[in-house]
Amino acid sequence: MLIREFNLSDKRTIDVAAKIHEQHKIESENDSESVTKRAMRRLLSRKMTVLSLGILAFYLLIMIVGYLGLLPDFQTRYATTYEPPSLEFAKLLGTDIFGRSVLFKILAGTKTAMTIAIFVTVFTVPIGMIMGSIAGYYGGKIDASVAWLYTILSSIPNILLLVGISYAVSTLFGPKAGEAASASTMDFGMISICVALGAVGWIGLCRLIRADVMKHKTMEYVLAVRLLGASDSTIIFKHILPNVFHLAIVSASLSMLGAIKFEVILTYLGVGVKSDGSWGMMIAYATGELSSGIWWPLLSVSIAMFLILYALNVVGDALRDALDPKLVY
């Protein structure tokens, strides 16, 4: 007999609720380790997934090395002007119009791209989870308000919305014309991109979490803990969210992918990072150089972008397959 069919004041209801809660707890504890092992085995069973994880680790290492101050200075000149790729380390990918190493500029751009990707992901994933779970659990006006907000934001083309937010942040809070450049000034373009992406990056995950929470809140294990007196916050964060957390993990890889792509696009359009240590800025310069036969800057930065975006795509697909409850169990 289902819990929802019992009288809430009936002692039998409480007893059955306690048994169901205990049974669900035991099953969860027994299955958690085996499910994790199966998911990891599925994740690492593909060679391309392992290779992609290695690429992501390498890019992350470059970012860490950059913040430790160990990356070569990309502003250093190694030639008078353009030089094609050669065997000299600084000139492996050639030099730009000022004789600066294209390789070192790509390393600086990697630090910028990974920083934005990680910051945006750490910011948007928790927001998407919290807003989606609250909307899905409580329903009513709260759900309608959240749905109205992400519907309004989703109705505006992504690139236009991001350009508008980034430009507004830069105009209102950024350095004014004629202001002396400083470290914070140089980084403000990165901040404006993070704010723009953070304002809209939570929407996709919020929708997924909301739909799953709506489904889970009517399941017997949730009804059981509710009858046992658990608070709403306990039910949401301790019992429901762990069962939908796989959505957040998959969303994190997609969030990083989107952040890197939009950082390049916004910088290319002139409303992003102002430093030459950005892939978007490199592409903006390289497209004009291509007509003069200077091909190596554009090719080099394109390969660097392709590798990280391809790796994130592969890892995202692998995570989805590995953590999908229908496939794991």
Kindly describe this structure:
There is one protein chain. Helix content is 74%, strand content 0%. The chain has 329 residues and is mainly alpha-helical. The chain has a single domain (15-82, 97-328), classed as Orthogonal Bundle (MetI-like fold). It starts with 10 loop residues before the first helix and ends with a helix.
Short account of what is shown:
The chain is mainly α and 329 residues long.
Mind describing the biggest β-sheet?
none
Question: Uncertain spans, ≥5 residues at pLDDT below 50?
Answer: 1-9, 180-186
Number of domains: 1
Number of helical elements: 12
Question: How many whole angstroms does the radius of gyration measure?
Answer: 25 Å
CATH architecture label: Orthogonal Bundle
The number of distinct β-strands equals 0
Name the CATH superfamily classification.
Answer: MetI-like
**Intertermini distance:** 26 Å
So what's the overall shape? elongated
CATH topology name: MetI-like fold
Q: Which structural category fits the helices and strands? A: mainly alpha
Mean pLDDT: 83
- Secondary-structure element series: HHHHHHHHHHHH
The top-level CATH class is Mainly Alpha
Strand content: under 5%
